[in-house]
From TrEMBL:
Compartment(s) where it occurs, according to its Swiss-Prot or TrEMBL record: Cell membrane; Membrane
Keyword set includes Transmembrane helix: yes
Name of the featured protein: Proton-dependent oligopeptide transporter, POT family
UniProt lineage: Bacteria, Bacillati, Actinomycetota, Actinomycetes, Kitasatosporales
Bilayer disposition of the protein: Multi-pass membrane protein
Entry's transmembrane regions: 43-62, 97-114, 120-138, 159-179, 185-205, 257-277, 289-308, 336-357, 369-388, 400-418, 439-461, 467-486
A GO biological-process term: tripeptide transmembrane transport
Pfam families, alphabetized: PTR2
């Protein structure tokens, strides 16, 4: 990366050394590399997780329990982004929070690397907590590198940063997945810790290039608020410890004592947050109307992520048991399927950006609602495609790898239609009072979708059954068509947002 650093004499106000990173503030290189290594550790562990959970030499779980654990873990990562943002805003500031997050994530992966079932869930919990702290704040620091929202380099900076995410996500299964599957599961988890360690080291060394405001606590807690927060935290922690001690000592403890409460929280909290915002009397009529429209997008997004994130659990477990994971006779690790999405994102995102601009010049760019509905229809279509390899496997044959690649391809196109639009519409429709919180609300759609998958698995629903897959596919397609059919009503509610 060093060759891309050049002097920027025309921008003396850029934080740091005055050098640039591909024409952007030097601090972007620090955040790019931090995010790349964090995503390397996160997606590497995530690619191994469902396979380790079902492996005889791993946790030896059933497919349903493994899917529940995986889904609860993902829902927690996104659920914790809101308290992660609060922690930076009120206690440490973004820079120190991200540094602390890196330490927590690294410790989590090291805990997973210990060959003990007893420490496994503690490791997952640490990685989820650290990811929530980091995810909520590193993007904030990217924005702080620029001279306000009108800086012409800002969108390009976030594009470069997004490439870091996908580079890490692409490389992780190829490296960590290969080591975990072929050498040893715990060696793979240890390699994820090394990746996060490298990211943390370069973050600490390069943090001098970040914007000064990244060290500022925007709204520090008063002494009274600190005392109240500590009391409430201690109370709830005490209740949890006592409750689980009673369950454990009585001999009634099972994994569901952890999974069920967490999945219920993953569904209930997003609903409570939306209700609280919608019922806020300080919002004017226009903001209330936009929030009514936003709920449509939120529910649709939850359905999308419920299916999309099964690419790492349901599809991965199916591939492990019932797919011919080979190309021209060369067999590859199952975890490599998780590299398909990021490489497609990197290849297709520029094409989509160019395509929308070209249509916009002609006045033919589809509306936000049409893009959103199309994304839902595509993710539903991906599960209709899934019915083919399921049928092949039921006939006693191994399904070709090309089927799975086709499913991931369809889901990726759907993601490119829905995810960027969702992020954009979230910022545009956010009430002024909740402007800084609404990105966390968008992540709660992922939480709700993954928690729903977890609840289905806990309830004993076999997500690899053709009937269940067809039902999920139909739900997504119907939701997409419904969004399209009611587009006029939603457009009216959206007001001046397009």
């Amino acid at each position: 990366m060093a060759s891309s650093l050049t002097k920027d004499s025309a921008s003396p106000g850029i934080p740091g050394s005055g050098k640039t990173f591909f024409g952007h503030p030097r601090g972007l290189a620090t955040l790019f590399m931090t995010e790349m290594w964090e995503r390397f550790s996160y997606y590497g562990m995530r690619a191994l997780l469902p396979l380790y959970l079902v492996a005889p030499g791993g946790m030896a779980m059933s497919a349903g329990t493994a899917t529940a654990v995986y889904s609860v873990y993902l829902s927690l990562v996104y659920l914790l982004t809101m308290p992660g943002g609060w922690f930076a805003d009120r206690i440490l500031g973004p820079r120190k929070t991200v540094a602390a997050a890196g330490v927590v994530i690294m410790l989590g992966h090291l805990t997973l690397a210990l060959p003990s079932a007893g420490t496994f869930y503690a490791g997952l919990g640490l990685v989820a907590i650290g990811s929530g702290l980091l995810k909520a704040n590193i993007s904030t620091m990217v924005g702080q590198l620029y001279d306000g929202p009108d800086d012409p380099r800002r969108d390009g900076g976030f594009t470069v940063f997004y490439m870091g995410i996908n580079l890490g996500a692409f490389a992780a299964p190829l490296v960590i997945g290969t080591v975990g599957e072929n050498v040893g599961w715990h060696f793979g988890f240890a390699l994820a810790a090394v990746g996060m360690g490298l990211g943390l080291l370069q973050f600490l060394l390069g943090s001098r290039h970040l914007a000064p405001q990244s060290s500022v606590v925007p709204k520090p807690l008063s002494a009274a608020e600190k005392s109240a927060t500590l009391r409430k935290s201690a109370l709830w922690a005490g209740i949890a410890v006592v409750a689980y001690a009673v369950v454990g000592l009585s001999g009634n403890y099972t994994l569901n004592w952890i999974l069920v409460p967490l999945t219920l929280l993953g569904v209930i909290i997003p609903v409570l947050v939306l209700v609280r915002i919608k019922r806020d009397r300080e919002l004017d009529r226009d903001e209330q109307s936009k929030m009514s429209a936003y709920i449509w997008f939120f529910v649709a997004a939850a359905v999308f992520w419920m299916i999309y994130d099964q690419g790492g659990s349901t599809l991965s477990i199916f591939a492990n048991a019932s797919a011919d994971n080979s190309v021209f006779g060369w067999e590859f690790p199952v975890s490599w399927y998780q590299s398909v999405n990021p490489v497609l994102i990197m290849a297709l995102a520029p094409v989509f950006a160019w395509f929308w601009l070209a249509l916009n010049r002609r006045g033919k760019e589809p509306s936000t609602i049409v893009k959103f509905g199309s994304g839902l229809v595509l993710v539903g279509t991906s599960f209709f495609l899934f019915l083919a390899p399921l049928s092949i496997a039921e006939g006693g044959h191994k399904a070709a790898a090309a089927w799975l690649v086709a499913i991931y391809f369809t889901q990726t196109v759907g993601e490119l239609l829905l995810s960027p639009v969702g992020l954009s519409v979230t910022t545009k429709m956010a009430p002024a009072k909740y402007a800084s919180q609404m990105m966390g609300v968008w992540f709660l759609a992922v939480t709700a979708g993954d928690a729903t998958t977890g609840l289905l698995s806990i309830a004993g629903v076999d997500l690899n059954r053709p009937g269940v897959v067809a039902m999920e596919a139909t739900l997504a397609v119907v939701a997409g068509v419904a969004v399209w059919m009611y587009r006029s009503k939603v457009k009216t509610l959206m007001g001046d947002v397009r």
